[in-house]
């Protein structure tokens, strides 16, 4: 479980406008969400999803072969 230490910035009316979190926690969130992936990795995942949706078993390697 990830604990996020945050500071909430409010406007003059007391409404929250921004949240400040430590850089390392931000990087962990980014990685967890996959936002740190390269464009090539994103394209590979898109193609893998298409292969899965189309039941293209030739696109995959058997686990025993790894």
From TrEMBL:
Protein's recorded name: Uncharacterized protein
Pfam families in UniProt: RelB-like
Alphabetized InterPro entries for the sequence: RelB-like
